[in-house]
Prior knowledge:
Residues 253-427 form the DUF6938 domain. By secondary structure, the chain is an alpha/beta fold. The chain is built from 19 helices and twelve strands.
Amino acid sequence: MKKKNQKTKAWIVSVDMGYGHQRAAYPLRFLAYKNEIITANNYRGIPKKDRAIWRQSREFYEFMSRFKKIPVIGQTAWNFYDNLQEIADFYPKRDLSALSFQIKEIYNWIEKRQWGKHLIERLSKKPIPLISTFFISAFMAEVHNYPGEIYCLATDTDINRAWAPKHPATSRIKYFAPNYRVVERLKLYGVPPEKIFLTGFPLPAENTGQNGLDVLKKDLVNRLVNLDPEKKYWNFYKQVAKKYLDVKKPPEKSNHPLTLMFAVGGAGAQRDIGVVILNSLKNEILQKKIRLILVAGIHNSLSRFFRQEIRKAGLIKQINKEVKIIFAPSKNEYFKNFNQALKTADILWTKPSELSFYCALGLPIIMAPPIGSQEQFNRKWLRTIGAGVSQDDPRHCNEWLQDWVQSGWFAEAAMQGFVEAPKYGTYNIEKIISHKFKEAKKIKMVLQY
């Protein structure tokens, strides 16, 4: 007999390609069987031929991300590569279910070369729900006849045809959509509406708290003190803040200094922006007016690079105080440290990757230039909900950053993200795989968003 409080377990399957797909999987680790997130391209016992296919695709993407910076030819080569995975215009609405070159090639490898069969056969021995944060491993599960339920979690605000299966109308794969646009996009690709669940992107529970969002609200109240020093936002929109944050007035002082976090993507292609920011804010850092967090992720070479640049800037005495580097040897440890640092961060400066969804934590986003078609759509989404703005000249961020703080714009963007962006993805996904609701077309009314 199943225990009353026993949680439904699932295979959580991700891929080691940048940070996006594993960042989406990390908040779901409490659902993972034996608390293990399976990395489809790097699990114990993976056949050499499977590992080689995965490695080639990952290394090519990382190479192209860096190669893009080469004058003229770099941008030309990137444009050609990006066109292969470009997201089609949404309007006019039309049937977009025709197979793309990319999806044909993926299925060719899965069906003819038996790519992924070893993994799926291993997981099939315990046919619990399978949640994949990458479309390829979801396709593998269906082609190789995984006996349990198959779910695919989309990780951007819009997606290209490669996310939908070869035969979407008859496929067993069900989708977790992070926002409304992905729901509608999947329909255009031919996925039946009853197989699409509007969940929101899974956010870390340590940053949200339970369904009442108690942790998130407390952190956001302290953030607003730093982002609205002259109370310009509060004076205009205090009723909104009171309604959503359950506070009558903000505290006199925040529990942390004004803090800017700069996060580099997995390929490390934009690390130079972090150095420009560091040097522009040097005086403010020395005067303890602002704290800067540079995110190096799991790249020790990037951590060393940032440390060298901190030394060159004459700020070595401020390291681990007014200037911090987030680095960890493993992604799980990195995500843990990153999420903890977010609690006392006020502004997140990053390219519009999967971190765009973190605006729901009440973090205003300064957007570095997007890399890839999907990030252009993420940028558009952030602008639409009022939670993000494209970076101005980083060399002068010491000036415009302060102007935006004094104007109350960052405070407004923080609240816009908190109110408008999905916050309950983690909990909704748990409800779905536990079958704690009826699968119906009224799914938007059933789940919290």
